[in-house]
Amino acid sequence: MQLSNYKHKIKETVKFHEVDLLGVCNNAVYFNYFEDARIKYLQDLKKNYGINEILENNSFFIMAHNHCDYLIPATLDDELEILTRVIKIKNTSFELEHIVLNSNNQEIIAKGGGVLVHINQTTKKKCSITQIIL
Predict the structure, then answer these.
(1) How do beta strands 108-120 and 59-70 pair?
(2) How does pLDDT run across 36-91, given as a tens digit for each residue?
């Protein structure tokens, strides 16, 4: 796994309300980290590449699939890096891949990803991604 293939990164710190009785970050919290990374990724595409139609007017993305593999527990106050990249683009959807690293030792804590579908927010129907990037 080449971490250099991941060009987008956000940072998160494991908070008190995110750990369970065993002192480890609850499994569901990783999906919140992935969501933060996805939103920031889309915002950065919009800002850095002038794709102004992303998340504007009727352009909207919904999650069709989400997954996570947990490798090493994160604990309270751990500083994490969530790396993100696009691994597949189709006509109406794209797939992201995430890696969660411990910032202090660069160990991979978890990996996961998801599929986002582009929809028209008014009609709630799938629409082509090329409408916003071409």
Answers:
(1) antiparallel
(2) 999 999 888 888 877 666 666 777 889 999 999 999 999 999 999 999 999 999 99
The pLDDT score that the predictor gives to residue 134 is 41
Lookup: tokens for 41: 């990724």
**pLDDT digits 0-9 by tens, 6-16:** 999 999 999 99
**Where is 75: in which H helix or E strand?**
none
Domain annotation for the chain: domains and CATH numbers: 3-133 (3.10.129.10)
Amino acid at 132: I
The alpha helices in the chain, defined as continuous H runs, are 29-49, 130-133
In b/e form, how buried is each residue of 34-50, taking b as 16+ CB within 10 angstroms?
Answer: beebbeebbeebbeeee
Strand partners, 132: none
Residue 29, φ and ψ in degrees, nearest 5: -65, -30
Tell me 87's DSSP state: E
CA distance 13 to 34: 13
